[in-house]
Amino acid sequence: MSDAHSNSLRSLSPELAKKAQDELGEVPERIDEDIETLRTWISKQPHLKARQDAQFLVAFLRGCKYSLEKTKLKLDNFYAMRGAVPELYKNRIVGEKQLSILETGCLLRLPQPLKADGPRIHISRYGQYDSKKYSIAEVIQVNTMFGEIQIREDDNAMISGFVEIIDMKGVGAGHIFQFDAVLVKKLAVLGDKAYPYRPKGFHFVNAPASAEKLMSIAKSLMSEKIRKRFHIHSKLESLYKYVPKECLPAEYGGSNGTIQDVVSTWRTKLLDYKPFFEEEVSYGTNEKLRRGQPVNAESLFGIEGSFRKLDID
């Protein structure tokens, strides 16, 4: 993991290899060359200190369907975000807090994907964490850590994307109160401009009637492409059309692991990545050295002012 220029790439299953070629334009014989092009480009950016191992870079190439220009931009933003969204990246280590958030079972990545070449299934259960103890930013920080582990380990997620089930059971006023519009806007920009992931669908289950009203308003503000990916299910039955019952954990009537298994697996993973996240602090961008406009909160989110209070803590 510490080898910055590791050239070893995991070989894909036949199903995923075919999908990467058909849907992402992957040309296996050209991958090495594309990775070298990216490394050369990184070495010429005075402001950017980025990881350069092959498995990491290929995730960005796949997430950008092998457009080198898009990949460079996304990679650059991926690191620039660390300065622009400090509330997610400050003290991002594998510590007591991060492990306790994981233990609540509020963020799940299921062991089996939707099908052999299908997306990874995520379940977010925001009602599970104690909103007096943790902030939504702290929970999402752990989510970004999971995401970086997936970039390195999860070919289904990087090639086929992910389906996110958001279970609103137990979400109370304390959680709703933390749901900050500025943070939501930042996350939307992060997802769009900085992360190489491909969201395939967001499914809200166990949503109270008031949330359903809110969602339909939110949907009216989205572009057609994004709107198609948002679904609200008043009953689990209508979710099964998109995510068959057997693909869900035992607690949801399926056979895709138990919540406790998923938590234990990811606890081990996080602990394995402890040195990785300690090293991570040395990567990022120095906006003073960037040629041209700096990439910061203002240029990314256009909401200067509302950030002032975040610099103090």
How many E strands?
Answer: 7
Shape verdict? globular
| Average predicted confidence as pLDDT | 91
Sheet with most strands: strand arrangement: 2-3-4-5-6
Helix content estimate = 40-55%
| Rg value | 19 Å
pLDDT below 50 for ≥5 consecutive residues: which ranges? 305-313
Instruction: Give the oligomer, counting copies of the same chain as homo and different chains as hetero.
Output: single chain
Share in β-strands: 5-15%
- Indicate the structural class: alpha/beta
Largest sheet: 5 strands, mixed
Distance between the termini: 32 Å
Following the backbone from N to C, one meets helices and strands in this order, namely: HHEHHHHEEHHEHHEHHEHHHEH
* Tally of contiguous helical segments: 16
Explained architecture:
- By secondary structure, the chain is an alpha/beta fold.
- It is 49% helix and 9% strand.
- It contains 16 helices and seven strands.
- It has helices at 14-24, 31-43, 54-63, 68-84, 86-89, 96-103, 136-153, 155-160, 173-178, 181-193, 209-220, 224-227, 236-239, 259-272, 274-280, 297-301; strands spanning 48-49, 107-109, 120-124, 162-167, 199-205, 230-233, 284-285.
- The strands form two sheets. It has a five-stranded mixed sheet with strand order 2-3-4-5-6. A two-stranded antiparallel ribbon has the order 1-7.
- Helix 2 packs across helix 3 (54-63) and helix 6 packs across helix 7 (136-153).
- The two termini are 32 Å apart.
